[in-house]
Write a structure and sequence with these properties.
The structure is a homodimer of 327-residue chains.
Chain A lengths: L1 H6 L4 H8 L7 H13 L6 H8 L4 E6 L12 H16 L3 E4 L7 H9 L5 E5 L5 H9 L4 E4 L9 E5 L1 H14 L4 E5 L5 H14 L6 E5 L6 H14 L6 E4 L2 H13 L9 E5 L3 H5 L5 E4 L2 H16 L7 E3 L2 E3 L4
Parallel strand pairs in A: 1-2, 1-3, 3-4, 4-5, 5-11, 6-7, 6-8, 8-9, 9-10
Antiparallel strand pairs in A: 10-12
The first copy, chain A, binds a DNA duplex (30 and 30 nucleotides) through helix 2 and helix 4.
DNA sequence: GGTTTTTATGAAATGCATTTCAATACAAAG
DNA sequence: CTTTGTATTGAAATGCATTTCATAAAAACC
């Protein structure tokens, strides 16, 4: 930078101002410096900048790849969320640090934050680690979480109205006069538990309804398929309605049940979740609960910006919608 | 760091050595320093470290979200690749910078590299920007690309054997005595063009075969659906074999064609690409070409490490496989 | 014309960890 | 009891840009 300054016949601070877009330089000085910088092939060192400015200009996005890999049930959904976040961060000129290692303990979070590796965190899906996130929030580390929204929680969460999603599914079942419902999903996951509760709520409107639960252990596609198949073979009464925690899971159920001659929509109603593109084109096309993916990423980033500014952003819930199709 | 040094009664370099895991400190000094650091809540500043070490310890992963968003045809495939890369980088303690902005021009690459924002680049899918990547490679910027493998190319590419994929599809069509093939995909994309060439190659084995092409403009699911539907309505002879560039596209085709009463496997054979989980459970289940996602991410990272070490890694091609199902 | 305000620029201090080189202490070898 | 080698440790130099504060110059105001 000294060199550029010398050649352009200005001082170092001026070069710095030009290169970081400060408005405190005259137009022609700017021109001159820019020209010299370009011709000398000079690029300022980002780390020196970050060191001096005492901020990373980067956000860590935490993602549990484990549960989305290799045939695991990770609807393209999370990917879309990620795309939205990436874009929103880009606009604000912030780097996106994807799933840095070590974030499975509170110390990992604190260390990354303190060492200025990231200015804030966006966690995608609280999954089964709510306790950890509560701790992080209590350390006053800027963070927003995509997932279940709980007002009692110490952190700011943005998520779909999972309970509404469950209710919508239940109401559809009632409309079709279904009475023996099956819920497919792991209630370990806060989000999924809320969907279950919504379903229960809808069930209360009719005293005849019974809900059974097929608790999912492995997220692998074929595992769900097999579990569903085994369930159907051993259950006393076959379900006439199924609410699956994802469209992909719904597809697995359709396959597993059809092998036993149990067909949708003839024998049972089925509602999935996420409204992934193939859901509309599956045979039969899958009725599902749609989340507002588009807005979600941008909203998460916006909330995080508020947190970075020192305020405590409020959690927000995005509406969910029933998309009616064949099943 | 000075404080920690003082309290632990050692010098700054010693603290540095302890904290960065150098073996040049005695065991009890290490203990002592570590204890003080912990109790003082000290974390070293990553940017100071990166500044001094003159490397970012970060890899930029470039991803064209645009073509994978909002119902666009981005099979979970890319996501799995990303997961693999993330893991491989984690192991090597490298940060993953996801799709930093500005990488649509050569200057963007050079700037990010020179300013030490990233030590290297992994580009996922060369798409229609091969020319840009060639330029990047010629600037001696460490980079590996997932996509079409071309020995004449200036950069190291890792990809599936797309041409083989095409051939496998063609051979299956021949086996089923299909003669009027339809290729669905955009040949602007190098990878997809190679698949087409493989298909052509197979076609040459039988002089009766004719290949038509449905060139895809928009990657949106419904756009493909509509294009396929329009095609079927206007074509003179209906295809009896379809090779689609992705499983999701294949699903779109199945839907579009079935509306016109053109059914698979009865009226035409269909081969998709990527073997995404739902492909196996779709009705009918989709015959497809599988790529080795698992290995891919790790291999990309490995090659990039070689490039960082100054050597010029050789491109590599992963085998593809035909997964036979109903269609 | 003199004074106040604004605009443009520079000197020096600051953010923080690593590395080279030299020095010391200690053990092993002769 | 030297000599040589090894293991630890420290002083000082280095990597690089930003910011505060001050100054000079130019513009605006009375």
């Amino acid at each position: 930078m000294d060199d550029v300054a010398r050649i352009a016949k200005v001082s170092k601070p001026t070069v710095s101002r030009v290169l970081s877009g400060s408005p405190l330089v005259s137009a022609d000085t700017r021109e001159r410096v820019l020209a010299v910088a370009r011709e000398q092939g000079y690029a300022l060192n980002r780390h020196a900048q970050k060191l001096r400015r005492e901020r990373a200009n980067a956000i860590a996005v935490v993602l549990d790849f484990g549960s989305h890999r290799q045939g695991a049930i990770g609807d393209p959904f999370i990917f879309e969320l990620l795309a939205g976040i990436s874009e929103a961060l880009s606009v604000r000129d912030l780097d996106l640090l994807l799933s840095p290692s070590g974030l499975d303990t509170i110390d990992g979070f604190v260390d990354l934050y303190q060492s200025r590796g990231a200015d804030g965190f966006i966690v995608l899906g609280q999954g089964a680690r709510d306790a950890l996130l509560q701790k992080v929030a209590r350390k006053d580390i800027p963070m927003v979480v995509w997932g279940a929204v709980n007002e009692a929680s110490a952190y700011c969460a943005v998520g779909s109205d999972n309970s509404l999603g469950g209710r919508l599914a239940g109401e559809r079942f009632l409309l079709h006069d279904r009475r023996r419902w099956l819920f497919v999903g792991s209630r370990q996951h806060e989000e999924i538990r809320l969907r279950f509760e919504g379903l229960q709520e809808a069930a209360r409107k009719n005293s005849d309804v019974e809900i059974d639960v097929l608790s999912i252990e492995s997220m692998a596609f074929s595992a769900i398929h097999d579990q569903a198949n085994a369930y159907l073979k051993t259950c006393t009464v076959r379900p006439d309605a199924v609410f699956a925690f994802s469209d992909t899971a719904a597809m697995a159920v359709i396959g597993a049940f059809s092998k036993e001659g149990h067909l949708t929509p003839r024998d049972y109603s089925l509602v999935g979740y996420n409204d992934i593109p193939p859901a509309a084109h599956f045979t039969p096309s899958i009725t599902t609960i749609a989340q507002q993916t588009g807005v979600a990423g941008a909203l998460l980033v916006e909330k995080l910006m508020q947190a970075l500014d020192g305020s405590r952003p409020r959690s927000a819930m995005l509406p969910t919608q029933l998309v009616t199709r064949q099943t």
